[in-house]
Write a structure and sequence with these properties.
26 strands, FIST_C, globular
């Protein structure tokens, strides 16, 4: 695999972030960027012009990761030339289906399944139920095919998110890449780093990702009780106090972040499902543990791939982590780089949700507030 990276910023234009590779003919461009600049048609034309014929796959973000840096108001290109690996791509607009499950089902079934080794997904981050999307994808893929990816972001605006595949970016869109062949070694891992507090409570009434009651009491009332003065800032302050979900159908605790509050219904809407009958516990941020979580996710990948350093790592970390880490945000990216070594290029973005198994060999899950890592190496 041969890789090249470029970065665009308003004050400097395009610059090379890696040495230029002689004769590079990439099959794939992974592009992450700020919504404002992705919507400028000239930027998309420039990206196409750099590498004619390559598939372009990307989304808007709440921060761009390139090398060991975190950018804002930038566009980051990672150009990939595979020696042995073939790719297929598909996308769908939400207007074409009734719900997020059907979108995932369609995308997965439309990919060729023979010789498929991995699926990478980028989704609209505001109008898609991540849990249902993942269920649709897994229902129509062969057993054992791992899925990783994330939900597009829009900084702190939450107005509109964009996804694109070989065409200018659009809202309400989901796109997938399928990777084919037996020469690609894919690693993946996901870890959080929040500390639980307060009692574990039974979810007694919910619908998909909307939580109404815990222990028979109003979910919003309970949240406000524990948040105290922070309750006035909901839903924005919810990133500091996500919910841990556990139960018989959940292999490990899943983290859910508040997206909206309904005072009339006394309900909370989360980024993923909060099933009735599961148990919920509130969590709070611990800066050192958030960074340690990113390290743990990276180390779990190396432990499975026999410590062979990957050539590329795609880091998808929740925008809530960036809001909490603030000036320490780049520490989690640098920590991952230290684990993989200087031979591994990094790209990625800050998201509104993440998709990955917790570690290799486990089933994929939809997450909030995690650092999710997908690594690639051709052999």
């Amino acid at each position: 695999m041969r890789i090249e990276q470029k970065l665009w910023r308003e004050n400097t234009g395009w610059s090379d972030l890696s040495p230029q590779v002689d004769g590079l003919m990439p099959q794939l461009l992974i592009v992450f960027g700020t919504r404002k600049y992705l919507q400028e048609e000239v930027r998309f034309e420039e990206i196409k012009g750099f590498y004619p014929g390559a598939h372009i796959f990307g989304c808007s973000t709440a921060g761009e990761i390139c090398a060991t840096n975190v950018f804002e108001d930038a566009l980051a290109i990672t150009a990939l030339e595979f020696e042995h690996t073939r790719i297929e791509s598909r996308q769908i607009h939400l207007s074409q289906v009734q719900n997020s499950f059907q979108a995932g089902e369609y995308l997965a079934s439309s990919l060729t399944h023979d010789d498929l080794s991995h699926v990478l997904v980028l989704s609209d981050g505001l109008h898609v139920n991540g849990s249902e999307l993942l269920q649709g994808l897994t229902s129509s893929l062969p057993p054992g095919i791992a899925i990783t990816g994330g939900m597009a972001g829009d900084g702190v605006s939450f107005e509109e998110t964009l996804v694109f595949l070989d065409a200018p970016p659009t809202p309400d869109t989901i796109a997938v890449l399928g990777f084919y062949g037996n020469h690609l070694r894919v690693g993946y891992g996901s870890m959080g780093g929040f500390d639980p507090f307060g009692p574990k409570r039974l979810i007694t009434r919910s619908a998909a990702n909307v939580l109404y009651e815990m222990d028979g009491r109003s979910a919003l009332e309970l949240y406000k009780k524990y948040l105290g003065e922070h309750a006035e800032g909901l839903p924005a302050t919810g990133v500091f106090f996500p919910l841990s979900i556990s139960g018989e159908e959940v292999a490990e605790s899943l983290v859910r972040t508040i997206l909206a509050v309904n005072e009339e219904e006394q309900s909370l809407t989360f980024g993923g499902d909060v099933p009735t009958g599961a148990y919920a516990r509130m969590m709070k941020a611990n800066l050192d543990r958030l960074i340690d979580g990113a390290v743990t996710a990276a180390e779990s990948i190396l432990s499975v791939v026999n410590n062979a350093s990957p050539e590329l790592a795609i880091l998808i970390s929740c925008f809530g982590r960036r809001s909490i880490l603030k000036q320490r945000t780049e520490e989690e990216v640098e920590a991952v780089s230290d684990v993989f070594g200087s031979g591994c290029m990094l790209t990625g973005f800050y998201s509104y949700g993440e998709i990955s198994p917790f570690k290799p060999g486990e089933k994929p899950e939809f997450h909030n507030q995690t650092m999710t890592i997908t690594t690639f190496r051709e052999v």
